[in-house]
Design the sequence.
């Protein structure tokens, strides 16, 4: 397992950590991240909206997009791009692998 906060593969816990939730906040090293389940797909994102830092764990997920709870902006969960009409950087995304021994995050 990689050291927290460093590049590498980090075990996050069991694959059933979501329960019935779509958004699960986690801390990896000093990074505040958000695990997002959209259908069968799981991805990790930075937890703070790149616009004004809103806590995205208070948002909602649907149709392949993560919606900011403070603004009308939403982010594509495939590439992090922001919805039309907004001019700030994309949301940072991190790969999550669902394996027999749980969820694995890839940083780097």
Sequence:
């Amino acid at each position: 397992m990689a050291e927290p906060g460093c590049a590498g593969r980090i075990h996050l816990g069991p694959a059933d950590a979501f329960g019935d939730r779509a958004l699960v906040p986690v801390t990896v090293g000093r990074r505040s991240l958000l695990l997002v389940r959209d259908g069968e797909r799981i991805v990790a994102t930075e937890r703070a909206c790149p616009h004004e830092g809103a806590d995205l764990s208070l948002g909602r997920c649907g149709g392949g997009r993560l919606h900011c709870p403070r603004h009308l902006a939403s982010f594509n969960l495939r590439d992090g791009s922001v919805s039309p009409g907004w001019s700030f950087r994309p949301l940072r995304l991190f790969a999550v692998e669902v394996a027999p021994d749980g969820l694995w995050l890839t940083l780097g």
About this structure: The CA atoms of residues 18 and 24 lie 7 Å apart.
